[in-house]
């Protein structure tokens, strides 16, 4: 029998339980979640019927919009005083990360305490720094945010609260996109944004990203000896 459950150890360390991504919507795949303790994630086409998922104890948590920017379509905004760099104070980046992830799908999962959801994103930022996949965002010499990436994917954005809504998101994010594009010699950039996060959707649309696809995200927990 095929194994449809892909372990996600990067999530296991945060949630005090085994965690898995379910790789298929087939009955055989969902049946494999029945007798295993842990947290399960599946991402599906929004036009697929959710009945089979609900029958197996999954619940809806989010819709991820997946915009793409093709080569030559990126709009770069300029603003005096803005800069980005691969050199930064690690602890200051982590401090910014603490206040940056209110729209994550694990924050929307009512079975996950907020402090564990916060830890999940903090650890992700830390992992990206270990791999030199964080650009620090500066304004007038001050470190105010970060931009996380991997290959052609824009993964994470964070900015200190006092610098939001001040016209800095477009120039700093577009500079990060341009540097990622040039450093990695890419043909396109992709990102994934919660449908609830309207400011991020508007931001990336203004930079030249256009919607290509979307995924509905469902979770499931088998609890018998869970730590949440």
Automatic annotation (TrEMBL):
The UniProt keyword set, sorted, is: Acyltransferase, Transferase
The signal peptide here is: none
Domain N-acetyltransferase spans what residues? Answer: 79-228
Q: Fetch the Gene3D superfamilies from UniProt.
A: 3.40.630.30
Q: Which InterPro entries match?
A: Acyl_CoA_acyltransferase (IPR016181), GNAT_dom (IPR000182)
One GO MF annotation is: acyltransferase activity
Q: What is its EC number?
A: 2.3.-.-
Please give the superkingdom of this protein's source. Answer: Bacteria
Q: Which SUPFAM superfamilies match?
A: Acyl-CoA N-acyltransferases (Nat) (SSF55729)
Q: Does the keyword Transferase apply?
A: yes
EC top class, in one word? transferase
- Say yes or no: keyword Acyltransferase present: yes
Identify this protein by name: GNAT family N-acetyltransferase
Protein species of origin: Halobacillus campisalis
Record lineage: Bacteria, Bacillati, Bacillota, Bacilli, Bacillales
């Amino acid at each position: 029998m095929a194994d449809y459950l892909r372990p996600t150890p990067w999530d296991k360390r945060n949630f005090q339980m085994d965690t898995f991504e379910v790789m298929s919507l087939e009955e055989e795949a969902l049946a494999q979640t029945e007798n295993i303790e842990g947290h399960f994630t599946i991402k599906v086409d929004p036009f697929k019927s959710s009945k089979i998922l609900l029958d197996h104890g999954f619940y809806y948590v989010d819709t991820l919009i997946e915009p793409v920017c093709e080569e030559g379509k990126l709009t770069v905004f300029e603003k005096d005083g803005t800069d980005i760099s691969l050199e930064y104070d690690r602890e200051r980046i982590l401090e910014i990360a603490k206040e940056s992830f209110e729209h994550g799908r694990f924050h929307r999962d009512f079975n996950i305490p907020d402090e564990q959801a916060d830890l999940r994103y903090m650890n992700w930022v830390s992992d990206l720094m270990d791999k030199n996949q964080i650009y620090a965002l500066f304004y007038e010499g001050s470190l105010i945010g970060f931009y996380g990436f991997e290959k052609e994917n824009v993964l994470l954005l964070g900015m200190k609260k006092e610098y939001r809504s001040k016209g800095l998101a477009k120039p700093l994010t577009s500079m990060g996109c341009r540097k990622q594009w040039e450093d990695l010699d890419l043909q396109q950039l992709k990102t994934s944004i919660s449908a609830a996060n309207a400011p991020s959707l508007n931001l990336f649309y203004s930079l030249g990203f256009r919607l290509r696809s979307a995924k509905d995200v469902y979770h499931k927990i088998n609890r018998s000896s869970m730590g949440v």
